[in-house]
Amino acid sequence: MEKQVIIATKNKGKAKELEKMFSTFNIKVKTLLDFPDAIDVEETGSTFEENAILKAETISQQYNIMTIADDSGLVIDALDGRPGIYSARYAGEDKDDEANIDKVLAEMIDIPNDDRSAKFYCALAIAIPGKETITVSGTCEGEILRERKGDNGFGYDPIFFIKDKGLTMAELSSEEKNRISHRAKAVNKLPAILQNLFDLGDQK
């Protein structure tokens, strides 16, 4: 029987990132778009990891299939870690990227240039029926600008400046972003974990 994995998202782009990697293990990738009756998981956790685990375990239990879920966001040092797990809805429940950016810029208007450090953080949870859920994470370090720059990407990308590149995340090409992003760094840890999981499974 063909092995399957559900990527707990309705975002086709996220799933596409993982499809190539899973093909190495002969695993078919599906998303929540393939499961219209999937439970809408409420993110009640207090950390990125807790939210990712909640999503992965809920969907995995519903369909008895290996499930991977992520939770990610922007962590700003001068704002005591905000917007953090509330990144997508920082300015309200409507998930408005522009309003979220405006709120961050307003809150940081008096923060000196030397104190505007931040990072994007991604937690991935891998839930497999009958096994303990595993989490991995990835970060991308940067600084918060005072105004938007760049038209690519989404979310807080236009105000997230990467010193090594001399550009904001929104000024990078999609290919370059996918090499250095927080999600890419978390995803890159999956092959070794999956190899270990399937090796263990083969021994039973």
Automatic annotation (TrEMBL):
User: What does the record list as coiled-coil region(s)?
Assistant: none
Cofactor comment: Binds 1 Mg(2+) ion per subunit.
The record's active-site residues are 71
Q: Which GO terms describe its biological process?
A: nucleotide metabolic process; purine nucleoside triphosphate catabolic process
| Superkingdom, taxonomy of origin | Bacteria
Q: Specify which residues bind substrate according to the UniProt entry for this protein.
A: 9-14, 72, 154-157, 177, 182-183
Annotated residues that bind Mg(2+) are located at: 42, 71
Q: What is its EC number?
A: 3.6.1.66
Q: Which GO terms describe its molecular function?
A: dITP diphosphatase activity; ITP diphosphatase activity; metal ion binding; nucleotide binding; ribonucleoside triphosphate phosphatase activity; XTP diphosphatase activity
Query: What InterPro entries would the database entry show?
Result: dITP/XTP_pyrophosphatase (IPR020922), ITPase-like_fam (IPR029001), RdgB/HAM1 (IPR002637)
Cofactor(s) this protein cannot do without: Mg(2+)
**Reaction it catalyzes:** ITP + H2O = IMP + diphosphate + H(+); XTP + H2O = XMP + diphosphate + H(+); dITP + H2O = dIMP + diphosphate + H(+)
GO CC aspect terms: cytosol
Membrane-crossing residue ranges in chain numbering: none
SUPFAM superfamilies, per this entry? ITPase-like
Which keywords belong to this entry?
Hydrolase, Magnesium, Metal-binding, Nucleotide metabolism, Nucleotide-binding
Q: What family does the Swiss-Prot or TrEMBL record give for this protein?
A: Belongs to the HAM1 NTPase family.
Subunit-structure text = Homodimer.
Query: What is the annotated role of this protein in its UniProt record?
Result: Pyrophosphatase that catalyzes the hydrolysis of nucleoside triphosphates to their monophosphate derivatives, with a high preference for the non-canonical purine nucleotides XTP (xanthosine triphosphate), dITP (deoxyinosine triphosphate) and ITP. Seems to function as a house-cleaning enzyme that removes non-canonical purine nucleotides from the nucleotide pool, thus preventing their incorporation into DNA/RNA and avoiding chromosomal lesions.
Name under which the protein is recorded: dITP/XTP pyrophosphatase
